[in-house]
């Protein structure tokens, strides 16, 4: 197999979760950095690859795969080594997906610069809009985790849910979400922050991270 390429941006939570999975599975890959603030995602060359103009985009063995969830499921199939992100019987796999989708579909799309700018030109309303969806989504996730969480989101084994949590907690801080309202999510995120692969994939440790934001 050829070495895969991940089109990424340091702060993109969608790209961030894919980087975590790649690190956990010990996959060697190249990064191509798409600077969203400079609108490089709208360059014709990139749009020819990904007409949606989003990151991440994953290219491997001639396959061009957009959308983080599709990429994560592809990684689980093509790189079946542990940790598996989606595992167990059909019901358990559905449980994992349903928890992860709270972040992937119910929260993340509403905090993108594209969504926020379309909602309002007022800076105050631009912050209130994603904060509403983050808090609403976290309320749902917190209640679900009361029944599923152990050391991690689903018992004591890493899953798809866990790769989604750190990027979203980071984004939540941008919109002044009080994580003390969500103690289970906060605790799991703190546990994940101790894992070297999560640290390496962190948005603040990427080649394109602005120098002033590096720890």
Automatic annotation (TrEMBL):
It is an enzyme of class 5 (isomerase). Its cofactor is glutathione. Residues 2-83 form the GST N-terminal domain. GO terms for cellular component: mitochondrion. GO terms for molecular function: glutathione transferase activity; maleylacetoacetate isomerase activity. Its EC number is 5.2.1.2. Residues 89-211 form the GST C-terminal domain. Keywords: Phenylalanine catabolism, Tyrosine catabolism. GO terms for biological process: glutathione metabolic process; L-phenylalanine catabolic process; L-tyrosine catabolic process. InterPro entries: Glutathione-S-Trfase_C-like, Glutathione-S-Trfase_C_sf, Glutathione_S-Trfase, Glutathione_S-Trfase_N, GST_C, GST_Zeta, GST_Zeta_N, Thioredoxin-like_sf. NCBIfam families: maiA (TIGR01262). Belongs to the GST superfamily. Zeta family. This is maleylacetoacetate isomerase.
């Amino acid at each position: 197999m050829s070495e895969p390429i991940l089109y990424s941006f340091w702060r993109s939570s969608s790209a961030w979760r894919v980087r975590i999975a790649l690190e956990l599975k010990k996959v060697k890959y190249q990064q191509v950095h798409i600077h969203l603030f400079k609108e490089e995602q709208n360059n014709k060359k990139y749009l020819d690859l990904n007409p949606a103009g989003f990151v991440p985009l994953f290219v491997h063995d001639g396959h061009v795969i957009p959308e983080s969830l599709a990429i994560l499921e592809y990684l689980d199939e093509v790189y079946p080594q542990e940790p598996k992100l989606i595992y167990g019987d059909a019901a358990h796999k559905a449980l994992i997906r349903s928890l992860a989708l709270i972040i992937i579909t119910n929260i993340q799309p509403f905090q993108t610069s594209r969504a926020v700018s379309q909602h309002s030109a007022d800076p105050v309303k631009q912050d209130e809009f994603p904060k509403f969806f983050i808090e609403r989504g976290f309320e749902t996730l917190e209640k679900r985790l009361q029944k599923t969480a152990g050391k991690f989101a689903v018992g004591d084994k890493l899953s798809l849910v866990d790769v989604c949590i750190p990027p979203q907690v980071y984004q939540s801080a941008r919109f002044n979400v009080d994580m003390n309202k969500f103690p289970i999510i906060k605790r799991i995120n703190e546990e994940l922050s101790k894992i070297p692969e999560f640290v390496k994939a962190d948005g603040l440790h990427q080649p394109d991270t602005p120098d002033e934001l590096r720890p």
